[in-house]
Fold this protein.
Amino acid sequence: MRLSNKQVDRIATGVFYFFAFLIIVILGGLIGYILYRGIGHISFDFLTSPPQTFKVGGGIGPQLFNSLFLLVLTMLITVPIGIGAGIYMAEYSRPGKFTDFIRLVVEVLSSFPSIVVGLFGLLVFVNYFDLKFSLLAGALALTVFNLPLMVRITEQGIRGVPREQKEAGLALGLTRWKTITKVMLPVALPTILTGTILAAGRVFGEAAALLFTAGMSSPRLDFTDWNPFSPVSPLNPLRPAETLAVHIWKINSEGIAPDAAQIAAGASTVLIITVLLFNLGSRWLGRYMYRKLTASK
Amino acid sequence: MKKTMLVMMTMVLALTLAACGSKNGNETSGGGGAEGLSGSILAAGSTAMQPLVEQVANKFMADSKYSGITVQVQGGGSGTGLTQVSEGQADIGNSDIFANEKFKDGDATKAEELVDHQVAVVAMSTVVNKDIAIDNLTKQQLVDIFTGKVTNWKEVGGADAKIVIVNRPSSSGTRKTFEKYGLGTASEDLPGNIQEDSSGTVKKLVGETPGAIGYLALSYLDDSVKKLKLDGVEATPDNVKAGTYPIWAYQHMYTKGEPNEAVKAFLDFMLTDDIQKTDVTELGYIAINEMQVTRDESGKIVKK
Amino acid sequence: MKATIEPSTRSSEGANPAAPTPGEAVSQPMNVSSNQSTGGKPSGNKPVARKRSRSGNEWFGKTYTMICVSVLIITIFSIVYFVASKGLATFFVNGVSLKEFLTGVKWAPDGEPQTFGALPFITGSFMTSILAACISAPLAFCAAIFMTELMPKFGKTVMQPVIELLAGIPSVVYGFVGLSVIVPFLRSVFPGQGLGIAAGAIVLSIMILPTITTIATDAMSNLPRGLKEGSYALGATRWQTISRSILPAVLPAMLTGVVLGIARAFGEALAVQMVIGNAPHIPNSLFESASTLTSVITLSMGNTIMGTVQNNVLWSLALMLLTMTFVFIFIVRVLERRSLR
């Protein structure tokens, strides 16, 4: 029997609904599973205390701090360079071989496997520049990933600025650079910020590249010592730093604490929640800035 | 114009990084002060040794005598540790294997510059999934299993079940120890066998997979897996100390040349009775000064 | 992993009305003066720009952005240079034959005699990532249709954020879940130990789902309205419209997404290493322990000493990953050029 068009349509629609539903179930199951396993283990103490090597009750305090600090360091390096290169691509570049080439570079750079970047970091930042396993080496490796994203985000943001505004700036007698920084960049800021935060969320979860650059250990930290040159200061960029994602990897593979599995589950939950916050945060910020900018008129 | 800019940028980048690097370098070299030692020590290498060294380092730094010294402990693997100590990036290279087994052929001279400090002994036991009924394997049976001659548990006296081997990658120091002292021959990378580098994963897989066999350091053992005797001898600290159980290895901390005062203080601290009896033992290692036998890198055993 | 970012930022821009609107709002009063410089292309502004370029300010801007761009270029060249110099040492310094490396099936860097056949890893990498794409692509297509055709509102408010979140989950967590859920499941259903290409491909397929979905969704929402409406006007059912009008139109974009997904899967390390089993052999079934390029690198890098042949050969594998990235980008470019025509 041949099915009529209507029947085929109904079946196909059913299939689409089924798969869409399936994806949501998989996702919900995945996130639910991680949260379910770990949420019970999260407490203020867990979030602030240092890990224990072989006793019960270790926390993830230093790791959480390291992850956030590493993110800040990475952004400090990436944002100025990324925005600069993005501006170049949007405003200064002329169509031609050189621009095509840079575009290719950005594309390739953003698809390099993280492990290759990690190895490169090990060879160049850790060994060659003698930074040892350190936050700085980790931040530089992460910059390699983040830079192309920043460039792309900025370029899109700047290109999204209406032409009239740019021309108005130039017509008022501003230099091109002034027009970009004083007129176009503020307008593009919401787009750039939203993209940056989304990118930051991914940096937060990166582990493969950091295994070889930021190291797998966190030294004793003295949270009262804020002198960045002291070796025990949390702010010292030349100290090794194990991030949350690396910590999960480590305790999954070598952990000998009796509650290693719970700690891994708890840490995974913290990681997921943080990424969730980044996503929500970028949405919220985008909406907030949109409102603020339109109101400021 | 573009080219000059490029060169300029490279130089700026390189200079900044070099500056950071050299500053760090100065800090690392420990100096002997008048009223106590100061400096910072970097120990890198074996991930399996990391918990032990970290634990001892924390105690060391808490000791008021050594408050001027900072010890940083890093993983990265034995190979990385030996590379870094040999190139001067780390003060101590942690390794679970003799350095000249890693530095081969052309690099053998590099191993000669390194001074070995043995700080503990780790013993390994063959472990199987809990549903395996047997509790002893002879050395020959073990060899047959790990070289693929025997593929079913019934051939070695167990129930009818396929043997699943959970091995380590061929670069692993744990595997080398197991092959050298447990099997006496190299094991095969058989098709279908599982290879994991980390003890945690090995434990998890052996514990979950029916018919699985693997090997673990005593410090990782718990009741999720079953320990097997080797030729009737159980892997216990006492049997290792007496030299009757063969599968064990030294935990090495290599320095390049003789250690400076700060590093020496740390290494001496590691060997004190107090540390050896408490932390080393608690973490599942065997105190080095309780060993009644010594063994050199060729495997020759001498009674103390 | 980074290949996903481009599409999702693109879509987040679409989801967030902030970008274009405030510009329009502010630009209103300025419109008057904008007539002076016609065109607005760089060439149109040249006289103005040149006149001001003497002021150090403009020079600063140009120099600064140029430096930023050169950082990008230096980075990529140094990555290629350093990885290649290490990776090629295997062949030129240690004298391993390239033919053996690419076609040999026995991997025993510590054996007697040493053999360096990397074919098992190469096949392992290709099999896992292509299989992952095969699982992921139909799902992504369905999800994209669902979000653009069936329930756009639900898709925008629930599904898209959820899929974006999927892209943000760290790979270690994927590996962790794979090892605790997927491996035991496969072990109980299929023969074998659960570890293997199938487990790796399933984990990867979830990881690359966002990449393909976002690109497919973007392509569908960018289709000219007339295409769909014309089809409906001719009396076609929804399924006919989807299969005869939409699918052919978005196919090139879908393919781009699939290739980017494969590229991401190819380079993923930790999650795969945790679930694939790592036996250095070409497996006989999907449920038998196997290896990928990335898994063998993560497994052995820390255990080997820099400068030895055992270490150099791992760099050769890394060089191979690097080369494959270029190949994937090249394929994407070709696909994009074709879809432009």
